Amino acid sequence: MVRDWRPGASQPALVARARMLEKTRRFFKRLEVLEVDTPLLAATAASDPHLDALSLETGNGVGYLQTSPEHALKRLVAAGSGPVYQLGKAFRAAENGNRHNHEFTMLEWYRPKFTLSKMIAETVDLLSALLGKRDVRKVSYRQLFESAFDFDPHRVSDRELQTVAQELAQRSVRDLDRDDLLNLLMAMKIEPNLGAGEFTVVTEWPASQAALAEVGRDKADNPVALRFEIYADGYELANGYDELRSAGALRRRYQQDCERRRALGKALPPLDTRLLDAMASGLPQCCGVAVGFDRLLMIQLGATSIDEVLAFSAARI
Fold first, then answer.
1. What is residue 187's DSSP assignment?
2. Labelling 148: which of 15, 29, 135, 183 has CA 20 to 30 A away?
3. Could you give the CA distance from residue 303 to residue 308 in angstroms, rounded to a whole number?
4. What is the DSSP letter of 309?
5. Which H or E element spans position 109?
């Protein structure tokens, strides 16, 4: 079988990508946020159980293609870089489909001394500059689940959660933990309806889904992650944190991630001791956001597959 040598993106799509890259850089130049370039290949990888890095042998042992520039950018901020952003490639194993490609373009930036609400506003400004202005709706994770399933996701019993998930998925869900069940319900019933003609900002996620975000309390005294996600047209576009600053907490979360990865039969990436040292030295209070750049282009062009906005997707290399 002869493989198609041609690009997936049309000439107009390639032009649209170039213009969106230019607009993004103009946006951050105007705000005096410094563009930086950090390594794609590193000695460690994110420990998040839902992220799998691609690894390869190097002259110095195993290296990992980065799932995001998060660790390197935080080290820069801890060293006094001030506000920084990176716009470039990231890699994730086992991610391939209409909305995913192993290699993709990620925009990520960090703002020292920003509050989460200020970071949300700046992210909406960026999305508006690239996709056009839309109404903005802010809603908590709890409100979404109460509306869709009539239960508080922070307090629902594991048994009830499993029953609802199994009825919706029409398959056994016994192998899924609590967060997996919540993610399943979110993906199947809630996410497809978010951002219909608007930017939907979802806040106050479960504390167990904090990743590298700080943890606080909501109005009902539930422990929640101080993070947000922004959706448009059913696409998750942005994921932002009030960044964790405690090296001790980072070490504990790494250990918890490793326990979960071990249970799933996944590889255990080495602990990023340089990030630990950077945080111990005094990472300032800051907020960070990651944006899937290719998805922005998909929405702008009305594309149904990421292949339409990439020169050469995984299927074409």
1. I
2. 135
3. 6
4. G
5. strand 103-112
